[in-house]
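Task 17 of the worksheet. Students: predict the tertiary structure of the chain below and write it out as structure tokens. Keep your answer in the requested format; marks are given for formatting as well as content.
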Amino acid sequence: MNESKKIIVGITGASGVIYGIRLIEELVKMGHKVHLMITDAGWQVLNQELGLSIDDKVSSLSEYIKEFNSNIFYHHMRDFNAPIASGSYQADSMIVIPCSMGTLSKIAHGTSSNLLERAADVMLKEGKKLIIVPRETPLNNIHLENMLTLSKAGAKILPAMPGFYHNPSNIEELIDHLVGKALDLMGIPHSLFRRWGE
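Model answer:
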């Protein structure tokens, strides 16, 4: 078992929320601590794409995530008293998966109007790993400029573009490929896909 890490996960209102859910499942299965935030639009997409109830949010999430346990810390978007709002907490990495263009823009411009944006700002100022998984198509110049701004600030941009060289046979394998790439960027070993040349 590898050393437990503290990972911040943000889910926003872009299509592809299954990527975030699948990542959380893998992280907690491996014993890592997950600090989770979901925007209002993120909850709407969770309802639309996965059928999660938004009446009792945390309860419906715990029913959906097979490995939901005490290693998942759910934070409301306005909870600026959460430990992840401060650089002194020393989280190992943060990922926004999927990341809407609206959230990406706010992070790129240091808005910090909610806990997710503040936590991302903290990761950048502390020089920690911040991974952005944008999910939009097509991209306009504003989207691209914002991604470039974040990349220059130290964030890693991991577009939701699964590979096909491992010959996926179902949608779950496509999802796992992207989740595996995210784990690679976090420095967390996994066996979610067959690597090129293996």
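Marker's comment: The two ends are 23 Å apart (CA to CA). The beta strands are 6-11, 33-38, 72-74, 93-99, 129-134, 156-157.
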